Amino acid sequence: MKWANTTSEDQVYWIGGMAGTGKSTIAKSLCDGFKKENLASAFFCSRQLEACRDHTRIIPTIAYQLARYSQTFAEALTKELEKDRDLADKDINKQMDLLLRKPWEVTAHKLTAVTAIIIIDALDECVDIKLLLEPLLKAIQSGSLLGLKFVFTSRPDQPVYKHLMKATYNSKVFLHEVEKDLVESDISKFLSEKLEDYGLVTQEHIVQLAQVCGKLFIFAATIVKWITASDLVGEERLKEILNLHHVPDISQKLDDLYGAIIDKAIAEVSNKERLWIVRVLHSIISVRNPVPSEVIAQLTNVNCQQVNRLIAALESVLYVGKQDEAIYVFHASFSDFLLREKSGEKVKDLQCNSLNQHTLLIQACFNIMDIELRFNMLSLPSSFLKDKEVENIVSNVNDKIQQGLVYACKSWGYHLGKSRKNAKVTTAMEQFLKEKIFYWIEVMSLLRLASHRESIREDTLVQCGDTLDSIRKISDLPEELQDNINNLKTATETFLLSPVNDMTPHWYLSILPFWKREIAGAQRGQNMGMIVKIQTEKQNLGSWNTGSEVYGLDISKDGTKIVSGGRDTTARIWNAKSGTPIGEPLQGHTHWVWSVAFSPDGKRIVSSAHDKTVRIWNAETGTPIGKPLQGHTDSVQSVAFSPDGKRIVSGSGDKTVRIWNAETTHFVKLWS
């Protein structure tokens, strides 16, 4: 590919195309072609996988792969992560700046003539992708990422189309606009290779099949799977596909093919059986992430063997993952087919109403949790042991908390947000909040042991609070439910921030007794006492050991960070949600740090100390901004930012108040 190996000003190559035109296949081929020399990173978006449809995962993934590609980049990235190990959890602009732009600027001037290639496939399958494209394209346009070239693939849909079409620094090709003869030639080669050992297919058939496929590579791949799946009916299937030649619309051809595949798979079933088959198909494309057949069976109330037989019958459009045994669709166009409105009588009932389907799934989740959740799920023997100290704890979690319950516990909030809030759903949720909510939090705490947590957002107990937070924002919930959820969220945060958050029994012993009056249903808690509180407004949500006496505190305006100053001469930044330190201590003062404060925008921190100085810090990197502010002749015991962030005021034991320019650090005014 000439573009990759030239010094062309176009840093972006956009491969656009309708569903099924071969974009992902090309992306994979490019990865194979570039792998030996200049493939630096690749990210394949997928609406099926939660991690692969999350735009906030892309930059951290690229940064990690670039670190493996370049030692210089790895060293520069390490320096940034030493300042703040939670950079992967930051907003996309901070990720772009600190995980990609800054380390790359250090790396770029040491590059050889070889250009590093980054491939991002299926941008349109990523949620909120515009939030990534805006800062990424801006960084490319500004010249901050010179030496990197990007290959993007996507459908020509908004907002990807809008952002990439207005970019003046990219090359582009639309696969659906490529000459039909060229595409048919490639498809003919593919069909010949895949069907050469299949005796029923002649060269004349290959030509006809290529014409039927038009420009859709996914059509070709699907018919190969369908024809070769069965020797008994392969000839019949071949004839049916050839009959699609008369259909003029390229998308309609694909719909007709999918309709034929499903129709043949369930041709002999009764109307009653067809209902559960459709229910299973709709669930497969609507679950939060791909799950094994046993989970689909539980969610749809269908026998697991029946689900497995259906998957086998539809092996040309569905497959089971080898590692996780989850059910996947081969191509997003099959999900699109099921979600589109149908006109023909044969396929009309195949249409999936997304709102109705999520309503069914949330009811299924509540039902599973109602049946399976109970007090002390693992029969933990003691409250004196940390969870990880209990013998065989991980295997017990995997054995006693079945996959269906795991899915329900992790995903009920997702389905609730996408469902129809009818009387059944509201009643089920009210019952869940009164009778099972505490056991759900217990299970979410235990599931931390069975998950590989790479960051705070992957902590299931943190997800617990996030679920409650998203649910309380649903506007049409009754006020009583809203209040209950608010109190539950606070109780969960209290547990997360407490010293006993890794001792699950203490959820019942040390947290809930304080909340029995505020949370409906808590009075039913099994063998739990109740703390009678004189004052309920001021509650200790959590505490952690800082390692030093704390003299000064402030919390950022958005509530995500806390800064502390203390006897050890440092200021420290903390994650307000988890209580974990962010980056290294801010070192520079030579004596006790009396006072600390965030700027109104949260980007800077000011500190004052017994060493008679005031210091300003970058709140993201932890690095000092400018030199110490000197002028006081005694300990500086108080400091603050003005509301507009342009001034700093400090008070000292020398009986003076000083005002400083926060931008220039110059002294402005003195009061004594």
UniProtKB/TrEMBL annotation:
Keywords associated with the record: Repeat, WD repeat
Nephrocystin 3-like N-terminal domain: residues covered: 2-155
Stored Pfam families: NPHP3_N, WD40
SMART domains: WD40 (SM00320)
CDD domains: WD40
InterPro entries the UniProt entry points to: NPHP3-like_N (IPR056884), P-loop_NTPase (IPR027417), WD40/YVTN_repeat-like_dom_sf (IPR015943), WD40_PAC1 (IPR020472), WD40_repeat_CS (IPR019775), WD40_repeat_dom_sf (IPR036322), WD40_rpt (IPR001680)
Residue ranges of WD repeats: 550-584, 586-627, 629-670
Superkingdom of source: Eukaryota
Keyword Signal among UniProt keywords: no
Xref: PANTHER family: F-BOX AND WD REPEAT DOMAIN CONTAINING 7 (PTHR19848:SF8), WD40 REPEAT PROTEIN (PTHR19848)
Protein name per Swiss-Prot or TrEMBL: Nephrocystin 3-like N-terminal domain-containing protein
